[in-house]
Amino acid sequence: MSDRAPVTVLWFRRDLRLADHPALVAAAASAERVVALFVDDERLRRPSGAPRVVFLDGCLDALDADLDGRLVRRTGDPVDVIPAVAREVGATVVHASEDFGPYGRARDDAVGRALATVDAELRLSGSPYAVAPGTVLNQSGQPFKVFTPFSKAWVRLASRRHPVGVPEVTWVDGLASTRPSAVELGSGVDLPAAGERAAHDRLDAFLEEAVDDYGGQRDLPAVDGTSRLSPHLKFGTVHPRQVLDRLAAGRVGHDKFRSELAWREFYADVLFHRPDTVRRAFNPKMAAMRVDAGPDADARFAAWCEGRTGYPFVDAGMRQLVAEAWMHNRVRMVVASFLVKDLHVDWTRGAAFFLEHLADGDLASNQHGWQWVAGTGTDAAPYFRVFNPVAQGRRFDPEGDYVRRWVPELAGLPGAAVHEPWALPAGAPEGYPDRVADHAAERAEALRRYDEIR
DNA sequence: TTTTGAGTTGTTCGA
DNA sequence: GTCGAACAACTCAAA
Q1: CA–C1' span, A382 to C13, in Å?
Q2: What string of pLDDT tens digits covers the 454 residues of chain A?
Q3: Taking each helix axis from N to C terminus, what angle separates A147-158 and A252-273, rounded to the nearest 10 degrees?
Q4: Which nucleotides in chain C lie less than 7 Å from some protein C-beta?
Q5: Protein CA A335 to sugar C1' B4 (Å)
Q6: Cα distance between residue A27 and residue A341, in whole Å
Q7: b/e string for A403-438 if b means 16 or more Cβ within 10 A?
């Protein structure tokens, strides 16, 4: 009773795995043979973001290896490439996972229309989330605007889904590929291993070594106490459903980590309902906040980008970002607060810099993480919560190991003294920059500016 | 409809 | 040195 089509196309995007892949399951069920396709869309390579692109290429190489070399790569605009491939192989259905980002939604609408002109269609199954954005609603049928009630409703929905395995598939062989020109990483940039196997190795290691102490260790940047799954979740080499399935109920570290996954989904949901918040304040009242622009602000922004603000904890974070294409979450908050509240630079500039340098750079999590710190977002930090970069360093890097690892100029200083080198009897070591701003004064300035608009 | 309780991540100041 | 209060109201979710 085979009413299956002879061939279909599975268009991979941010789902670069074979296990627990709803669109692959749908494709395999619908056709005798499946074409594995990835489209190198130049727009996914902007803004520059070399580490993210190189990590993506690593994921694609790993996927291709898992497919015994049968991953077809084509460069170009998906609106042209997808219908062309469908015609080339005689497919009337193209399968893909649903993308809920602003660009992805517009692209998929356009591709769907283009496919219709060749009597084919785009069929979407699954998404990069345990619960698709737009489906978690309060009792009035509206999206949640604060995290805690969202997460309670989300957990109920998320816990219903369980991962599935790799289906039987006959992959189509022998189609030509085209490759984009290689992207060069800056020298000394060190990326984690990419691909589905690497993602699961990372998950296994986290579950074995760190998740039980997650609540106590996750805030210490000198400790390997976080999952480091973010780049893998970004490109779908592991799905959050697979992670959730391996967390136990009622264990502190597990619950805490589940809550971090809920944040990722909350922000995707917020962005789905408010795509304008990629660039604009979620809270329109906060859009009037006065920020600095011009040569002085540019100079302060450059010092921040280059990790030479004179505040060791901030500089360590920014240097880790550039070197590892990743920054510890605690430090992300501190450096973001410093840019926005001490240097008075618009949060969108910092968010753009993060996206350029992070391998895990995800639009929803990044923009809304920044909005939270800047106080412009959903459920944002209260205006008076201004992180003190020295106090944060002393509290979360009490031995100073994190700072010494990333700021070699301070490597000779003992213990927590690295957090305040200007206070040493001998002053800061030669070669370490002076502070670009005085925290106490700029904190007061930030509070004054808030007063102007409230 | 009204009411009530709650809301990621902090810092500073003064007793 | 430690500890609690102040820092602001306001919006959201649900009873």
Answers
A1: 20
A2: 468 999 999 999 999 999 999 999 999 999 999 999 999 998 877 657 899 999 999 999 999 999 999 999 999 999 999 999 999 999 999 999 999 999 999 999 999 999 999 999 999 999 999 999 999 999 888 999 989 999 999 999 998 889 999 999 999 999 999 988 888 888 889 999 999 999 999 999 999 999 999 988 999 999 999 999 999 999 999 999 999 999 998 888 999 999 999 999 999 999 999 999 999 999 888 888 899 999 999 999 999 999 999 999 999 999 999 999 999 999 999 999 999 999 999 999 999 999 999 999 999 999 999 999 998 888 778 878 899 999 999 999 999 999 999 999 999 999 999 999 999 988 899 999 999 999 999 999 998 888 888 7
A3: 110
A4: 7-9, 11-15
A5: 37
A6: 50
A7: bbebbebbeebeebebbbbeeeeeebbeebeebbbe
Q: Please report, rounded to whole angstroms, the spatial distance between the CA atom of protein residue A454 and the C1' atom of nucleotide B12.
A: 22
The side-by-side arrangement of strands in the sheet containing A31-40 is A71-75, A31-40, A5-12, A93-96, A121-124
Token pair of A20 as six digits? 């627990």
State how beta strands A121-124 and A31-40 pair: unpaired
Q: Look up the protein residue whose alpha carbon has the minimum distance to the C1' of C15.
A: A139
Backbone angles phi, psi at A44, to 5 degrees: -75, -10
Separation of CA A419 and C1' B10 in angstroms? 18
Point out the nucleotide closest to A152 (alpha carbon to C1′).
Answer: C13
Is any atom of strand C within 7 angstroms of residue A444's beta carbon? Answer: no
Distance CA A336, CA A353 (A): 11
- Using C1' positions and the CA of A390, the closest nucleotide is B11
**CA of A94: how far to CAs of A7, A28, A74, A357, A445, in Å?**
10, 12, 15, 33, 55
From the CA of A154, how many Å to the C1' of C2? 40
| A39 beta partners | A74
A257, A214 in Cβ contact below 8 A? yes
Query: How many whole angstroms separate alpha carbon A80 and alpha carbon A374?
Result: 40
Rounded to whole angstroms, the Cα distance separating A240 from A362 reads 15
Q: Give pLDDT, residue A380.
A: 79
Pick left, alpha or beta for residue A49 (phi over 0 → left; psi -120 to 50 → alpha; otherwise beta): left
Instruction: List all residues 6 or more positions away from A49 whose beta carbon is below 8 Å from its beta carbon.
Output: A355, A356, A357, A358, A361
